[in-house]
# Entry
Amino acid sequence: MGCSTSTITISTNSTNIWSLFVTIDGDIYADNANENGYVNKWTFNATQSEIAMNVHGWCTGLFVDINYHLYCSSTNKHHVIKIPINNGQTVPIVVAGTGCSGPVPNMLDHPHGIFVDNKLNLYVADTGNNRIQFFVPGNKNAKTIAGFGAMVYFILNRPTDIALNADGYLYIVESQNHRIIRSTPNGFKCLVGCSGNSGITSSQLDYSQTMAFDTAGNIFVSDFNNHRIQKFQLIKNSCGMSISIITE
# Structure
């Protein structure tokens, strides 16, 4: 007999969802802030949502850290906010940005994707400033680790998402360059869309927006203008280093 996978359909009263995050427990968080001023949460296998966070402005990035804090990158407010979850609190605190756009270390300009590592360091795709910002816990002055202002300059064009893989390498989605790049011991290299031109073939992207890994390390990319989700499988050599990708 063959196997089957059950599907649960959930819905929200929003027509403009900017971001989505799924925890290792299977809970789902979805932006509903632009239209309704909050972030929805569905616990595992639930079909009805609850309010997880009140937000004044939409969340273009969501993340839940290892201590179960929910983060929202509020692009029109030029800051990142967070709350502890599962304790009834819905009013967030600001952890990055001042609320005004700007290029100095404590400011952001239309931030999008965010990532929090196991040491609670915060990575922000500072889209309007064409850079990736790194915040240590409790410090609102960031270090630029990629793009404009970084020590090793690598030109970025509207970065909209970031992620760290299991080996600690940084992956960056560039929307205007239609590509995915990653850090290496010797700087940055391009993985997908390396011509910098948009396209419709399986190895091209058009205004890529977000990305995520599965448990096997494969990459899923939201290919916005092509109206599709692309999956790229990482191929590793005998040393375990990722050396190339193939498209599925």
The domain at 157-248 is CATH 2.40.10.500 (Thrombin, subunit H). The longest strand covers residues 228-236. The mean pLDDT is 89.
